[in-house]
Amino acid sequence: MRWPGAALIAGEMRGHPLRTLIGILAIAAGVAMGYAVQLINRAAAGELSATVNALMGNADIELRGPRAGFDEALYPRIARLPEVAAASPVVEVDARVVGRDASLKLLGVDVFRAGYVTPNLVGRLAQTDRADRTKGMNVATGTNVTKGTTGTRLDLLDPDTVFLSPAALTWLALKPGDSLTVQVGLAPVTLRIAGVLPASGDAVRVGVMDIGAAQWRLQRLGTLHRIDLKLKPGVDAEAFARSIAPRLPAGVAAVTPGDNAHRTSMLSRAYRANLDVLALVALFTGAFLVFTMQALAVLRRRAQFALLRAIGVTQRGVLWLVVSEGAILGVLGAATGLAIGFALAAAVLRYGGGDLGGGYFEGVQPRVHFDAMPAAVFFALGVAASVLGSLAPALEAARARPARALKAGDEEAPAARLRTRRTVTAALVAIGAGLVAALLPPVAGLPIFGYLAIALLLLGGVLAMPAVARAVFAVLPRSNHALPQLVLAQLANAPGRATIGLAGIVTSFSLMTAMAIMVSSFRVAVDDWLQLLLPAPLYLRASPGGDSAFLSSADQAAIAATPGVTRAEFLRVTQISLDARLPPVSLLARPIDPRNPGARLPLTTAPLVPLVARAGDSPPVWISEAAADLYGMHPGQRITLPLAGQRVPFTVAGIWRDYARQFGAIVIDASDYRRLTGDTRVTDAALWLAPGVAPAQAIARLRASVPGGRHLEFAQPGEIRAASLRIFDRSFAVTYLLEAVAVIIGLFGVGASFGAQALARTREFGMLRHIGVMRRQIAVMLAMEGALVALLGVLAGLTLGLSLAMVLVHVVNPQSFHWTMSVHMPWGLLAALASAVVVAAALTALLSSRAAMSVDAVRAVRDDW
């Protein structure tokens, strides 16, 4: 006889289309989220890496200095080394574009040297018709070519010209011949666009000037930011980098293309890893939902499988039938998820950029490309999740004894096996292993054991639910009313079906709870942190972005002398490199009272005392938690920092909490910074106003009294906090989306589980109808059962979710981003989510009773006669 498996599977799916659709969507949701995150990050990181490589050109080594630059006298010493075939000096400035809050990267190059090392940075002159070219050649002096005409080769050296990448031209809505105005200090600098760059990546904004012009116009005289080197044939780049390191000034590092690629990937690695794990969590939730639906379907079809066994189908045949159903759900769900994920990634990249809210790829506008390998991986994960969700029900269906399974009332027997001592032991072992994993250190900077701890705790919690449900339902007080008594008796004496439905509820609600607690804790911590860091009533900044704008000594004096300003504290923000393979560390120079540093810094450790430096002592610095973790620093340690080309000793005086800079920040007193570097420029100021002076009055006076004051950016503490929290919410937009997906999957799971339970209990409802119970009463009874089971699932999920949140807050977050925080419970949100789940369960059970009671009462119990 031909095996009718395909027909049985097709009949089951046609007979229960909603259950099939929910299973497909559960798998599709996890696959879509994971694949979209992978495509977006891969496209953004790939584009950024390709652009870095394009800008590095054919260089074998890049000598890269700090944000402030290094002395250009290093260039001739390097260029004369016997291993160097060609050397190209570069000035690199992120210039604020006037009229925009974003910056444009401007590079200054020596076109005669760049042609040998980085030809992509040599501008290509715009061309029109031959008459214009002739005219340009006759009058060419290298400057001020009329708009619409073609320049000459001298435009490459013109101090008033710039060459822009195609992406920059598109972003600025400009074309060759137009003017570009950038802010330097507080003054505007206007440049003429003389042409385009031949190759600079498809989506990154960059402009190139002559190096002398860049040093002059951008006020970087005598300074370089990097030197690109082309080595002679046969010279090993890695060996050369190691040999030259001792001869470089402090803060200048020899960087290979591999180091550049590693540093670029490090920018968003932890962020990408966490998003990938969240996507896998959605897939994990989908697998539990498939398990719930398949387990309940197996219970409902228990007699059908027993009949198949009775007519000769083997245990393996039944096993493959159920697993095949799960595999088909997985294939359809995974294929749907890939399509949705690709469309979602394309939409996000088109309308939201490639940073997924994290801010790691600002200025990058990549395009999505189909990638077969991630597609295959997530397709396989989707199918595997569905198959694994079906495996336990399939084994139970195959092992059932046909004679017993054909009898009515045997549905509770399989679920009873979930409450065995072995299951409880497995649950305890999983929970214990999860607690141990939470104590283990990160692996390669990622909280691998933290993720494992979450998975083990979740598994242990779900395995423990059958025993918990039996214990809870057994001790519930009985009622004198008939309907509540029936409900409690049903749950106490036949809790198996209910505990299967609990798996989906507990899984989804615990994950919802954990993510809600983590996000709420982080948000409250950021808000409290901002309140401590923003004591002044008014703040100003030379520019909202970039490093070309600054406040000179004269500007600072004018600000401090402005009527209505009683006190002004100035801040200098720059960057230094402590490890060439890691992103740079932020250096903040601001006034700090060494006797009370906690007045300006949210310290996590007690400051060292005494902190008043004596003659010959190393000045104090305060490091962020990220700097302490990444570089192994601790209070009392003597460290050296590269300042002004020298290695200067400092003493770590304390650790402070910083939620703005993931790769570390170091605070130094402003007077120490100026004394050691001679740098008097600042970027920000905090202003205290005289009594009766409103911020608006002070802003008007400052704009009038400071030359170039119209370019200053002002903000009050409330505005800064609101803007920062908007950025925070944008950074966690994907987390919110995944949380919403978990909510939807959980509610679908509630509906599927109670619907399947109601259909499986048609004989029970028929018997109740025979003894006089009305349909309305059965519906109320089912709604009460649904609400009680969901309430137990919510309480268990809340307890388990709190444990998962502890791991997220105290393990995953510090190991991923090096930030610590306290736990904050969002009781309002959790109450709303819990109420939604309980109400949804009650309504779903109520609606499912209509289908269960549509069968005639006599027909429903005929199997028992």
TrEMBL record:
- Could you list this entry's UniProt keywords, alphabetically sorted: Cell membrane, Membrane, Transmembrane, Transmembrane helix
From the record, give the transmembrane residue ranges: 21-40, 277-299, 319-352, 372-395, 424-443, 449-477, 498-519, 736-759, 780-807, 827-847
The record's annotation in Pfam families points to:
FtsX, MacB_PCD
Domain annotation MacB-like periplasmic core: ranges:
22-245, 502-704
What is the membrane topology noted in the UniProt record heading this document? Answer: Multi-pass membrane protein
Q: Which residues form the ABC3 transporter permease C-terminal domain?
A: 278-400, 740-854
- What is the annotated localization of this protein? Cell membrane
Q: Does the keyword Transmembrane apply?
A: yes
Which is one Gene Ontology cellular component term of this protein? plasma membrane protein complex
Highest rank taxon of the organism: Bacteria
GO process annotations (BP) = lipoprotein localization to outer membrane
What the entry lists under PANTHER family is as follows: LIPOPROTEIN-RELEASING SYSTEM TRANSMEMBRANE PROTEIN LOLE
Q: Which family does it belong to?
A: Belongs to the ABC-4 integral membrane protein family. LolC/E subfamily.
By what name is this protein known?
Answer: ABC transporter permease
Which species?
Paraburkholderia tagetis
